[in-house]
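Posting here for the record, re: iron/sulfur cluster.
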Amino acid sequence: MGQTLVEKIISSHSGKTIQQNEIAIVNVDAVMASDTTAPLTIKSFEEMGGTQVWDSSKVVFVIDHAAPAPNERIANLHSLMRDFAKKQGIKLYDAGSGICHQLMVENGHVKPGQLVLGADSHTCTYGALGAFATGVGSTDLAAVLLTGKTWIKVPETIKIQLNGTLQPGVSAKDLILFLVGQLGIDGATYKAIEFTGEAITNLSLDSRLTIANMVIEMGAKAGFVDTIGLELPYEFEPIKADEDAKYESVYAFDVSQLEPQVAIPHSPDNVKPISEVEGSMIQQAFLGSCTNGRLEDLHEAANILKGKRVHPEVRFMIAAASTEVYLQALQDGTAEILTRAGATFLPSGCGPCVGTHLGVPGNDEGIISSTNRNFRGRMGNRNSNVYLSSPAVVAASALFGKITNPKKLLKEAVK
Amino acid sequence: MILTGTAHVYGDNIDTDRIIPGKYTKTLNMQELADHVFEDLDPEFRAKLTAGDILVAGNNFGCGSSREQAPLALKKAGVSIVIARSFARIFYRNAINIGLPIIEIKDHTINDKDQLKVNLSTGEVENVTKSLKYIGSEMPSVMIDIINDGGLVPYLKKRGTYQLV
Ligand code: SF4
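Prediction output follows.
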């Protein structure tokens, strides 16, 4: 019988042919932990009796979630990470370098066909490269540091076929928000997802990362974006599921008529077409995160905001996904356009996404955000209302102080 | 092992941000986690909870982040076991790894304040208040070994690496 992508990758990492619902012990190609999870990982690793990690070249630490440190407690946790990384000879990206998932992809720590674990739920992002990548907790990750292995139950796979071409002003984020709305927050729990179809194979790497990023918002263990048409800075062998692979279910959507989508408070699957929420007031706009903090996202916003100024009652914040992205935005003038439009650039990192510091909203405020989660309290205040959208919707909404469809503005920009 | 306690019942899709908000996760002090458990979901929770009580939820408990601080906070706060109709994947693994017992019961009818008696070895839960019995879903054998060893740290200390039977 044919194999799905996840069956293929798990088979190649366990040394035997394996099928869905079986349990396998697999060799892990790379692991990552952030400043939210690495301190507990170190603690568990030491409690397990670990002294030397199994392979220092395969371990990456990133200080991004609360970076630079907002207080002494976190500063000391950062020091703990630095000390451990130095002692073990492992790569550490320090505060300001960028978001863990962006750095993993940008610096080639993950490649197509690999099996990668991260102590962060959005590790699923690397599925954009055709890698099996999933999030685990700190102790699971510590076990990999010790043994180089983990155990996995091979998931069943949902196939999602996306046909048609997206309208101008509609992006990969709208696509994935739409799908999260369709399948629901636990619609893919314990499952893998394969995305395919012409709407996908035309997309850039940045857009593909956006799609894979949010599969966890449907509960999925991993997502795979078809690698047809994928361009990477190095040669790679495209990996394909077999024609006769067995799927748990198959969905097909024609996305040609899709309008921008918005997830309304307080769940990422609470998704509405923008026409139903247009006009909702916002006081803060955030462009950034591992979902939408890349160059393409900054370009979309600049396209809308060039020569304009955001609404005087809106605080508009941007955190580029990495220093590299920020540098590119500086070089091509995007950062200047956005700054002149009223944006404040935060350090490259998670920024307001996870509510630790930098841009915590006030009571009853509305926030339009290009991030991936709007659970109550996610941005640090349970009494605020977070709406999730594409970068274009964030920019258009910042301009008017209320949720706005970018379509009209894009027409003007074209003229 | 038999556990008995009072049920505290919550709904579906309780995410990890509501179990322990992101702003409190950066610590190695378990008491600091416990002090903020469920803060954005039910600020009264900590006052209501007596050590040994049982947390009961609907579908998809623990969805969202991979933060192990979520089960750690519940454990330190005194929750003896979590029963839910279903669990999000990462939370499920994390709870077992850190030694917080959990049982998935797809069709439970537990109400707030029901008295429960849980047999951890058989996965059987008795609702003493309602005189009903439920049976938990089966777990992969590697998870049962991890539970029996008391979590992933003692499991690996004992065995050195993963073993499948
Ligand atoms: S940007 Fe947000 S979702 Fe992404 S890793 Fe950072 S905190 Fe998590």
